[in-house]
Structures are given as structure tokens and as C-alpha cells.
Specification:
The chain has 111 residues and is mainly α. The chain has six helices and no strands. It has one domain: Orthogonal Bundle (SMc04008-like fold), CATH 1.10.3340.10. The protein is globular, with a radius of gyration of 15 Å.
């Protein structure tokens, strides 16, 4: 799923603001990686409209905007804290029919 890029920052941010935002982002990643690895990406997509893979895409977009070449796999590893295939094998379960139906309904509602 492709996500629109956020609008460019209109004003430069001070180093403290950037440091606070970075700390909050790192805490979000730690939460999703370690404390809530039980929450499936499909459930995140249904409820919030984004998932860990989206975060990986946004991370890669931000890197590329700064002239840093990054593959999809490298970006996902930065988000998952391990190669995506390893995370998927360790934590991802097969989507249930109910999850698939809810995901489809959410896509129609937000798409």
C-alpha cells in the first residue's frame, strides 16, 4: 500500500525538538518490536491505517529525501530490529477470515 508523503517541513526545527521526536520514534519502535510483537500488522492496518511495513516505507522515504540510498529490506530491518523474514517467521500469524474481512472493509472505508 502506498502512502502519500507528508508535506515538507515549513519551518526549521531546533535540535531539541528533533531529539524529542527521535526519542519518541525509538520508543514506538521498541514498543512494537518487544512489548507488542503480538499485535499483527493486519490489525494495525485495520485500526490505525498503518503498520510496521508502512513505518519502514516512511523510514526509507526519509532516508532517500536526505540522499541516502536504502533498500526496502534495510528499512524494514531498521523498523523490525531484525530481518523482516526472521520477524515474520517468529511473530506473524496467518490472517484469520475475520481479519481479512475487517481489512477489506477498512480499505473500502479509507481507500
Amino acid at each position: 500500500m502506498s502512502h502519500p508523503a507528508p508535506p515538507p517541513d515549513s519551518a526549521p526545527q531546533d535540535h531539541e525538538t528533533i531529539a524529542i521526536q527521535a526519542a519518541a520514534f525509538r520508543r514506538l519502535l521498541a514498543h512494537l518490536m518487544h512489548e507488542r510483537s503480538d499485535v499483527q500488522n493486519i490489525d494495525l492496518m485495520i485500526l490505525a491505517g498503518f503498520c510496521r511495513n508502512c513505518l519502514g516505507d516512511w523510514y526509507r522515504d526519509a532516508a532517500q529525501a536526505r540522499g541516502i540510498d536504502m533498500s526496502k529490506d534495510e528499512a524494514r530491518e531498521a523498523i523490525y530490529g531484525m530481518p523482516f523474514a526472521q520477524w515474520k517467521a517468529q511473530f506473524q500469524r496467518e490472517a484469520t477470515p475475520e481479519q481479512l474481512a475487517a481489512f477489506e472493509a477498512a480499505q473500502k472505508k479509507h481507500g
